[in-house]
Design goal:
- It is a single chain.
- The chain is built from twelve helices and twelve strands.
- The protein is an alpha/beta fold.
- It folds into two domains: about 200 residues, 3-Layer(aba) Sandwich (Rossmann fold); about 90 residues, UDP-galactose 4-epimerase, domain 1.
- It binds 2-amino-3-ketobutyric acid (AKB).
């Protein structure tokens, strides 16, 4: 039986992925770690430990002691926050990945998952239906770190045979754990504010179209990629995933169907420039062909679940 380590288990992806992995592999076989306390269900459904991915020595002890065979390394500083402290963000995003890749190589880890992002693309990339292989000149420190990370993952695969797998996530939308510091996070905040105050002041322009994905589809895709037969995988940098694409005025119109009084205003900040440098939609045909990625949620279905679940959470 595989023993799985999740790094960043208190975060937006980790808090939901940990539970899904425990359902598949058994609670005791999925070791959740983070530098901060995780949600209650993560702490109660299996082992949880505070662990810093930057501490390579402690990490190695943990992996050896618990006979870890697979690692999901999800900790990262996202695009908006990384622009505020570029060198620190670079250091955290790159050093943590290199710690994991080295650890994987030295300890015979069977499989490693590391998330990349649509942020690897830049203003010179074709914006509509962005292909898997294309021009990549990211202009954010987050995007630069993700692109470098993709090259490192592929390097470890080619040079050392380390089985690294990765997805370029679009903006991820979820209600369980709030995201922090991303450019696409307006599409999470808007639901909370819609439920709390029936209004939202958006930090992007009304027509800032971006690719997005509801968390259940992201979790499902991640597990599907990690379960795929290695011989089927033609990409060892990171797979494009498309999900759904919409802009702030479209999501606001969808929310209005449930909350007719809902009002949106626009005060674009520095994140608007980041959004303009990213794709509006993604071609994910390679992921579909290689390992059969597919999605269940469109904008309408996702909006319905987000409003219902946030309403329950906030007692509204
Ligand atoms: C961000 O906005 O920084 C992230 C991402 C698209 O990777 N959600």
């Amino acid at each position: 039986m595989d023993k799985i380590l999740v790094i960043g288990a208190a975060g937006q992806i980790g808090s939901e992925l940990t539970i899904a992995l425990r359902n598949n592999y058994g609670g005791e076989n999925v070791f959740a770690t983070d530098i901060k306390q995780a949600p209650q269900d993560v702490v109660e459904s299996g082992p949880f430990q505070i662990l810093d991915v930057m501490d390579a020595k402690n990490l190695a002890h943990f992996v050896i002691r618990n006979k870890i065979t697979q690692i999901y390394h999800l900790a990262a500083v996202l695009s908006g926050n990384a622009e505020k402290l570029p060198l620190q963000a670079w250091d955290i995003n790159m050093k943590s990945l290199l710690n994991i890749l080295n650890l994987g190589k030295e300890n015979g880890i069977k499989r490693i998952f590391w998330p990349s992002s649509i942020a690897v693309f830049g203003p010179t990339t074709p914006r509509v239906s962005t292909p898997q292989l294309t021009v990549m000149e990211p202009t954010t420190v987050y995007g630069i770190s993700k692109l470098a990370g993709e090259r490192w993952c592929e390097y470890y695969w080619k040079k050392y045979g380390l089985d690294t797998r990765s997805i370029r996530y679009p903006g991820l939308i979820s209600y369980k754990t709030e995201a922090g510091g991303g450019t696409t996070d307006y599409a999470v905040e808007i639901f909370y504010d819609a439920v709390k105050t029936k209004s939202y002041d958006c930090f992007l322009k009304d027509d800032a179209r971006l690719p997005m994905m509801f968390m259940p589809d992201a979790i499902d895709s991640t597990i599907k990629l990690m379960d795929a037969d290695a011989s089927k995988l033609t990409i060892r940098s990171s797979y494009n995933l498309g999900g759904i694409d919409f802009d702030p005025k479209e999501i606001a119109a969808e929310i209005k169907k449930h909350i007719p009084e809902f009002k949106i205003t626009y005060t674009p900040d520095f994140r608007q420039k980041i959004a303009e440098s990213w794709p509006a939609s993604i071609d994910d045909s390679v992921a579909k062909n290689d390992w059969g990625c597919k999605y269940e949620y469109d904008l309408a279905k996702m909006t319905e679940v987000m409003l219902r679940e946030i309403g329950k959470k906030l007692g509204k």
